[in-house]
Write a structure and sequence with these properties.
Layout lengths: L10 H10 L1 H8 L2 H8 L3 H8 L7 H17 L7 H15 L9 H4 L3 E3 L6 E3 L4 H21 L4 H19 L3 H4 L31 E4 L9 H16 L5 E5 L7 H21 L7 E5 L20 E6 L1
Parallel strand pairs: 4-5
Antiparallel strand pairs: 1-2, 3-6, 4-6
Length: 316
């Protein structure tokens, strides 16, 4: 079972440490005065950490308490890891004063150094690149998880930050026995996938527009008003990169049916020629005539209706 990271120093850890780390006590047992000097290294920050006032921010307060307990653990009379103790006390003071405390950096803990300098020489630093890569991956995942969940669960996120720093320090010392007491739980670091909003729907295509070109009675020539409509249709076709333009001619019901069929075809041809003059390629224009069929305005046979004398221009 993973322990609560704020309880970094469970009572049984103290007893366990006394039995498992006697090798670190031997030098100071033979040099009591030297040991007294060792404890003084972390003394100023230890005092500041213990004298902190409670902080109103739960996350900051939990960090301050957790880092102080880590400092106490490293600073204990049977442990004598005063350099890490100093680091943890400093972070406790930062958190207690409301300063941001970044998640521990594996690169900083990976510095190979003699530690502590007054007792023999055992080096600190990750034993393999694989361990460093794991630590860097943990840091990235933990940082993202804290950012996503700190406001909702400030206690657990702060506990895991402290637990990660504990894990870093123990792994850097190749102290795999103590790692289990840090309370690190990577299984918690699951950042809920943000539900991505669907991409915006493409802008609706402009509604198909039909351009109406009207003609005088029994005529197929282009009037000035008709020319303006054709020019607008040509401009729009160029802007929209239209590939096919259909011009369909019509006639009213005045006159013989076969005559009106031919008249509607001549009107469509006139519009085609005008579109070509406006720069539309001739091979993109299709024409046809509907004669008296498909009147815009229903009339009786033989009725002159201006709105039925037309050509409809449509884009395809």
């Amino acid at each position: 079972m993973v322990r609560n990271a704020t309880a970094v120093l469970p009572p049984n850890l103290y007893e366990w440490g006394k039995s498992m780390k006697l090798h670190r006590l031997i030098p100071c047992l033979t040099a009591v005065l030297l040991a007294a000097g060792c404890s003084g290294i972390a003394e100023p920050m230890r005092t500041d950490s213990h004298n902190l006032r409670p902080h109103s921010d739960v996350f900051q307060q939990t960090l301050a308490d957790g880092y102080r307990k880590l400092g106490q653990f490293e600073d204990s009379t049977w442990h004598w890891d005063y350099i890490p103790a100093q680091i943890f006390y400093e972070k406790s003071v930062m958190a207690g004063n409301g300063q941001p405390v970044p998640v521990g950096d594996p690169i900083e803990w990976n510095v190979r150094r003699s530690h502590p300098p007054m007792f023999g020489h055992y080096v600190v630093g990750f034993s393999s690149k694989r361990t460093l890569d794991t630590a860097l991956d943990y840091r990235a995942r933990l940082s993202a998880w804290i950012a996503a969940n700190k406001a909702r669960d400030p206690v657990t996120t702060a506990q895991q930050q402290v637990a990660f720093e504990c894990w870093l320090e123990q792994m850097a010392e190749d102290d795999y026995e103590e790692v289990q007491f840090c309370g690190l739980n990577p299984a918690l670091w699951v950042v809920a996938q943000q539900t991505q909003a669907p991409p915006p729907a493409p802008a609706p295509a402009p509604a198909a527009r039909t351009y109406l070109v009207f003609f005088d009675f029994d005529r197929s020539d282009i009037t000035p008003e008709a020319a303006a409509i054709i020019r607008q249709a040509a401009d729009d076709a160029k802007r929209q990169n239209v590939r096919l333009i259909v011009a369909t001619g019509h006639a009213d019901r005045s006159g013989p049916t076969d005559y009106n069929q031919r008249l509607s075809e001549r009107r469509a041809a006139s519009v085609r020629a005008a579109l070509v003059r406006e720069g539309i390629p001739a091979n993109t224009i299709q024409t046809s005539g509907r004669g008296e069929n498909d009147n815009l305005v229903a009339t009786a046979d033989g009725v002159r209706e201006p709105r039925n004398r037309r050509v409809e221009i449509a884009f395809r």
